[in-house]
Every structure is written in C-alpha cells, then in structure tokens.
Design a protein that fits this description.
The chain is mainly beta. The radius of gyration is 22 Å and the shape is elongated.
C-alpha cells in the first residue's frame, strides 16, 4: 500500500507531471489506484481575453461605445451588476421556460454582438440588436460548455470516455460557487488497474471538461491524493 500526494506548481496546474528520483518499484503483483482526495480551486473563467468574449459594444442613443469586462467567471446576476455599475443600457435575464437569455434595452439603444464572442455564452446571434426586448436564438451556455470535470491520472488504464480508452480516475460536477475551494474525498474510492508493471517513474495529472478539453485554472495550485495498492 502506497499513499501518493501530488501538488502542482501554480503554473499549468491543470496539466502537470511529477517525476520520482527514486522510481516506485512494483513487484510481480497487479496494482490498482484510486483518487482518495483532492483540492481544486474553482478558478476557471467563462469570460476572458483568451476566449475573445470580454467585449460588449453598445450604442448609447448617439455614439457607439465598447465596454471591456474584466476576466472572470460570471453568472447573469454578476454580469448585470458589472454592467449597471458602468452605466450600461442593457439588462439580461433568463427565460426559465425556454432556457434562453433575454436582453432588455433602454429605448433608442442598441448592442452589437458581432464584436467579439460574448454572444456565444448568452445564446444570441452575432448581430446588432435594437429591440427593447430580444430573446436569444440558442440556449444559454453561461458555463461555456464546462458541465463536468474529469480528473486524469497517467497510471490508469481500463477507463473509458465514451467509446475511447482513457485515463480518467474520477469525475464530478462542481457544487460550490466560483472562487471557492473544491474539496473531494470520494467515498467509497473507485479503484482502477495500473498500467505500469515494474516501475513508476512519473505521474501526470490533468483536469479537463467532459469533452476532454483542458481549461486553465489561472495559476491556482491543486493537490491530489492517490492510493496505490495490490489487487
């Protein structure tokens, strides 16, 4: 039985590798591994310069202006709060029946969703909106497609993502608000076969969404605890 604690540096904490100066020797037995604990900050963004969706161009009745949103994770309430604090003429709400975002504009005002990609997470088309009330064409995607978090461990085999062999050791849906520390202690832990048969020289840990896409944790460290045991 071996307890493995892996802590990332701040940089690239969503994809890091730990190398062992003295490799972990495995005897002739088969081994299995499980995630028994981890700490991950809810630090990824849904609005960022990286996504080109931090701009809102609007006409204030006479002139076109461009508002730049700070990088961060916004829900509709927080987005409205920031917009109102900057005297913006648009207010967003959610039509819970259709799962669409609704934009309400002051009379004579316009917003131009063709500037940048903010329209993508709000479900609007990339065009100018000049109605007092307009509903998005598509369902709102405020999470930017990140609905489930997958934790990958290079030791793992016999895990599958859809019909493709994978190294996912655990997955979860965040239950805490953005900016908080996500603490996981799987109970019971799920043990999976280990691919190495003789030596463990390094372990790579990755965090992706349900579509296997890496996303940035913005330099917040993560810690994983793995339990390695004979079968």
């Amino acid at each position: 039985m071996v307890l493995l604690t892996l802590t990332s540096e701040k940089k690239d904490s969503e994809n890091f590798e730990v190398y062992y100066n003295s490799p972990i020797a495995l005897d002739d037995s088969n081994y299995e591994v499980a995630l028994i604990g981890c700490n991950i900050w809810f630090s990824w963004y849904n609005i960022s310069h990286e996504y080109s969706n931090k701009y809102l161009r609007y006409r204030n009745g006479r002139d076109w202006e461009r508002l730049v949103l700070p990088d961060g994770y916004y829900n509709i309430e927080l987005l409205n709060y920031y917009l109102k604090s900057n005297a913006n003429p648009v207010d967003f709400e959610i039509n819970e029946i259709t799962s669409r975002c609704v934009a309400r504009l002051k009379p004579g005002h316009k917003i131009d969703f063709s500037d940048g990609k903010l329209h993508e997470i709000l479900g609007f088309e990339a065009k100018v909106i000049d109605q007092d009330k307009a509903e998005g064409k598509y369902p709102i995607n405020i999470s930017k497609g990140i609905d489930r978090i997958l934790i990958h461990c290079s030791l793992v085999e016999n895990s599958y993502l859809n019909n493709v062999k994978s190294d996912v050791v655990y997955s979860f849906v965040p239950q805490t608000p953005p900016g908080s520390l996500i603490t996981l202690n799987p109970n019971p832990p799920i043990y999976l076969p280990v691919r190495e048969k003789r030596l463990i020289q390094s372990i790579r840990m990755q965090i992706t969404d349900q579509n296997n896409r890496l996303f940035e944790l913005n330099d917040e460290p993560v810690t994983f605890m793995l339990h390695l045991r004979r079968t």
